[in-house]
Specification:
Distance between the termini: 26 Å
Number of domains: 2
Helix content: 25-40%
Oligomer: single chain
CATH topology of the largest domain: Rossmann fold
Radius of gyration: 21 Å
Number of strands: 13
């Protein structure tokens, strides 16, 4: 009990220090604030080093220095850094909201997704990245499966696909096969549009929500293919497991319909974004996805990371018992008869009693 009290006391003191620092360092209220001024570049350097080490409250410190405040960064260009987990070179476009966070964190921002992948994948496994964007998650998958594994990265947006190719070629990721295509239930060509501004990863084949006011920052045509077209080329050696990540702005159910054989024969874990707004633009609800996957024997889990010590994370998998349960932003579909289930079983917990 004493150690827990000491922990909470130390955390409270750290937050007090951060708040005082935020009061002193107040670029939001300063006229003509320049993120490239020497004093601010020095503060950014210190904050990046703190965040790269994943020290306590590093996200709050980055918020204090206005990493999330888009107007301050619009005139910035590209910056390069090495990923803190895998060591690969990352080239990031700072005006883009999520790429800017990746530069300050020296990794993809959603740590819990990477922690789940880290506990599920082994050398020689297969990773399919649906909605690979600029390749930040693709690189994590490539690092985990190694040169003996296989990664297929699907990204239909021509602009970020070029960035994906840069990451693959610069880091000599021969295990990665890029596809400038989307995943769906049929072969067709559609127009992809990026709504709003500041997030190249928001490209969608769906209708654009009204909240964007019709603003589209980029558009292009791109092919879509069923995931099952990959099946003949995928390794089949004993012990080779598969993880699929789907973050495709409302097309997730159509992608699942296009990989029926993969789901039946390989029983991969499927990590899926549950964006109710974008699913709704396709007439899909969580109920539809839940019923589709449970009919194929899958169990649904919410997941989060549990920090053990600095830079060491565990994962927490909480069962989602029904379609009417609260829906987290991301879920993992795991088949009880898969090798992935055996790897992750120790991280599965029972939902809290109500």
């Amino acid at each position: 009990m004493a150690s827990r009290t000491s922990f909470h006391t130390a955390r409270g003191r750290l937050m007090t220090v951060i708040n005082r620092f935020g009061g002193w360092y107040s670029p939001a209220s300063a006229p003509h604030f320049d993120v490239n001024a020497p004093q601010h570049r020095f503060v950014q350097f210190l904050a990046r080093m703190y965040a790269k080490a994943e020290l306590p409250r590093h996200v709050q410190i980055l918020e204090v220095i206005q990493v999330g405040r888009e107007p301050l960064w619009l005139k910035e260009g590209w910056r390069t850094c090495r990923g803190s987990w895998h060591g690969y070179t990352m080239r990031l476009n700072i005006p883009d909201f999520y790429q800017r966070w990746a530069w300050f964190l020296s990794r993809y921002h959603e740590v819990y997704v990477q922690v789940l992948m880290r506990n599920a994948l082994r050398k020689g496994d297969i990773f399919i990245d649906g909605g690979a964007n600029n390749g930040l998650v693709t690189m994590v998958g490539a690092w985990l499966v190694g040169k003996t594994g296989a990664v297929h990265a699907f990204e239909p947006n021509a602009t970020v696909h070029d960035q994906l190719l840069w990451h693959i070629n610069t880091n000599h990721l021969s295990q990665v096969t890029p596809h400038r295509a989307g995943l769906s239930d049929r072969e067709e060509t559609l127009t992809l549009r990026v709504p709003g501004s500041g997030n190249w990863g928001a490209g969608t084949f769906s209708s654009i929500p009204d909240r964007y006011g019709g603003v589209v920052s980029e558009s292009c045509t791109a092919p879509l293919i069923p995931g099952d077209t990959l099946l003949p080329s995928l390794p089949t050696r004993p012990g080779c497991e598969m993880v699929i990540k789907l973050d495709i702005e409302g097309f997730e159910l159509r992608a699942l319909l296009g990989m029926e054989k993969i789901l039946r024969e390989r029983r991969p874990m499927v990590i899926m974004e549950m964006n109710s707004e974008m699913l709704g633009m396709n007439g899909v609800t969580f109920d539809h996805v839940f019923n589709h996957m449970t009919a194929r024997g899958y169990r649904c889990f919410g997941f989060s990371d549990r920090r053990k010590i600095i830079r060491r994370h565990g994962v927490v998998l909480t069962p989602i018992p029904g379609a009417n349960s609260p829906m987290p932003p991301d879920v993992a579909w795991i088949h009880p008869y898969s090798g992935i289930w055996q790897r992750l079983a120790r991280w599965m917990v029972e939902p809290a009693a109500t």
